[in-house]
């Protein structure tokens, strides 16, 4: 570990926030994947498996909500750049005690799409909670994180396997 102080890219030397200028960067293909979980009760998981959640198709609604959210990231995060979201895949699956969510976002632009991937997966998780809260209010969003990014100046990165 370096003894140099951590420099956050969105902060000036005096500590004030600013939007990083990316006009001099060359557009390149970039991709990021984020995952999250929505922990649910046995009752909710059964309703999801049986398709009996009163509000309808939870996974379809969450998928569309996440994709829409990826495109709206700069509206939610004040220092995020408005970039072209050229692709967004959002997958949801049912595990024993949770809904597993994964979002992969792609662009050919001047900055990465990590925040778009995280926004997609967390808003999709919020949609799941919204859809199931009438059945059981105990649903919890957990473990939202970037698992992979590629492209750009810093190249490829993959989160180490968790034990």
Automatic annotation (TrEMBL):
Stated name of the protein: Molybdopterin cofactor biosynthesis C (MoaC) domain
Biological or metabolic pathway of the protein: Cofactor biosynthesis; molybdopterin biosynthesis
SUPFAM superfamilies for the chain: Molybdenum cofactor biosynthesis protein C, MoaC
Keyword terms: Molybdenum cofactor biosynthesis
PANTHER family per UniProt: MOLYBDOPTERIN COFACTOR SYNTHESIS PROTEIN A
Organism taxonomic ancestry: Bacteria, Bacillati, Actinomycetota, Actinomycetes, Propionibacteriales
NCBIfam families from the UniProt entry: moaC, PRK09364.1
Organism: Propionibacterium ruminifibrarum
One family name in Pfam for this protein: MoaC
One of the GO BP terms on file: Mo-molybdopterin cofactor biosynthetic process
Molybdopterin cofactor biosynthesis C (MoaC) domain boundaries: 19-152
